[in-house]
Amino acid sequence: MVLKFILIQNRQGKTRLAKWYSPYSDSEKLKLKGDVHRLVASRDQKFQSNFVEFKESQVIYRRYAGLFFCVCVDEIDNELYYLEAIHLFVEVLDTYFRNVCELDLVFNFYKVYTILDEVFLAGEIEETSKQVILRRLEELDRLE
């Protein structure tokens, strides 16, 4: 179970966070961002699942307000596992930023990447406890 990439994009397709765990060229990354956005933005939230086949992989995504949180994994990986990991990541962001919004991601991108690395590390889910992650973030904030 290894992630290929994580993308957070708004409804207009602007990428707010991208983390790549597989080697892609810059042109491939640009194409993947556009392909993933077209794929998830066009789906009906009420009648279609949050799992989509994508090339030889699958994209698992969740929409929170105006943002799409997407992960790309192998076809055989457990979709629900990653759906829960996305939700955990969003819960941690929401608690840390006290009701997170898109501007928090834009202006505090370095913190968002730190939080991402506390949840996902080297393409694998690192920690599943919200309290443990928030405690680590508090310790890092004290060090600054």
UniProtKB/TrEMBL annotation:
GO annotations of cellular component type: AP-2 adaptor complex
Segments forming domain AP complex mu/sigma subunit: 3-143
One GO biological-process annotation of the entry reads: intracellular protein transport
Keyword match rRNA-binding: no
Question: What protein does this entry describe?
Answer: AP complex subunit sigma
Q: According to its UniProt record, where is this protein located?
A: Cell membrane; Membrane, Coated pit
Query: Which branch of life, at top level?
Result: Eukaryota
One Pfam family it belongs to: Clat_adaptor_s
Q: Which family is annotated?
A: Belongs to the adaptor complexes small subunit family.
InterPro entries assigned: AP_complex_ssu, AP_mu_sigma_su, APS2, Longin-like_dom_sf
Q: Which PANTHER family match?
A: ADAPTOR COMPLEXES SMALL SUBUNIT FAMILY (PTHR11753)
Q: Which organism is it from?
A: Magnusiomyces paraingens
Keyword hit for Protein transport: yes
Keywords, A to Z, come to: Cell membrane, Coated pit, Endocytosis, Membrane, Protein transport, Transport
Using the UniProt record, give the first listed, main subcellular location: membrane
Quaternary structure, from the entry:
Adaptor protein complex 2 (AP-2) is a heterotetramer composed of two large adaptins (alpha-type subunit APL3 and beta-type subunit APL1), a medium chain (mu-type subunit APM4) and a small adaptin (sigma-type subunit APS2).
Give the membrane topology, semicolon-separated if more than one. Peripheral membrane protein
The role this protein plays is: Component of the adaptor complexes which link clathrin to receptors in coated vesicles. Clathrin-associated protein complexes are believed to interact with the cytoplasmic tails of membrane proteins, leading to their selection and concentration.
Q: Which GO-annotated molecular functions does the record name?
A: clathrin adaptor activity
